[in-house]
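quick q for whoever's on today - can somebody do inverse folding on this one?? i tried earlier but teh output was garbage lol. tokens:
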């Protein structure tokens, strides 16, 4: 499978497993899972034929490990705008986490902190390098340091997804620092 097809399949799966499952006629269970066969049928019926081998390839090679497969079911690991309960227990975060963004939104972030926007959680990276890659998707990256240890001590809950992305409801401005 070539890189272009891999990216196209990954984006298609992300769209339908995170945001618009009904658009192709699938229903996610309460935890975001759908049967692989149901997904493959729905993809084919909506003009995006996909083999099980292609699906398995995308799940296996995704550098961000966006998807999980278990018991012949698949789900996105995080990033949903549809309501799902990923069943992630609260976790104690490391002292600092990182958020990649771009300069044009810094004034808003300084005033309001990090908000989930159209998702259920704010996504935080465990290291600066990952945050740089995340921010670079929208332009020249800016990395913010999040004092996750202080947030946790102040009562904020954190969860960590299967692929290592840290999730929290919001990050107030007092816990943010700009990293050069």
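ok took a stab at it. sequence:
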């Amino acid at each position: 499978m070539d890189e272009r097809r891999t990216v196209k399949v990954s984006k298609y799966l992300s769209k339908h497993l995170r945001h618009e499952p009904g658009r192709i006629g699938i229903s996610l269970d309460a935890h975001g899972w759908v049967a692989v066969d149901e997904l493959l049928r729905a993809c084919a019926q909506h003009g995006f034929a996909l083999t099980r081998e292609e699906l398995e390839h995308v799940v296996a090679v995704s550098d961000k490990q966006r998807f999980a497969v278990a018991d012949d079911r698949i789900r996105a690991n995080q990033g949903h705008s549809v309501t799902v309960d990923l069943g992630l227990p609260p976790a104690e975060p490391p002292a600092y986490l990182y958020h990649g963004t771009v300069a044009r939104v810094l004034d808003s972030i300084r005033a309001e902190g990090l908000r989930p926007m159209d998702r259920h959680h704010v996504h935080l990276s465990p290291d600066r390098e990952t945050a740089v890659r995340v921010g670079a998707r929208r332009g020249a990256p800016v990395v913010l340091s999040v004092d996750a240890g202080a947030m946790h001590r102040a009562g904020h809950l954190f969860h960590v997804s299967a692929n290592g992305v840290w999730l929290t409801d919001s990050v107030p401005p007092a816990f943010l620092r700009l990293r050069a």
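fwiw Residues 3-19 form the longest helix (17 residues). also DSSP finds six helices and nine strands in the chain. so keep that in mind when u check it
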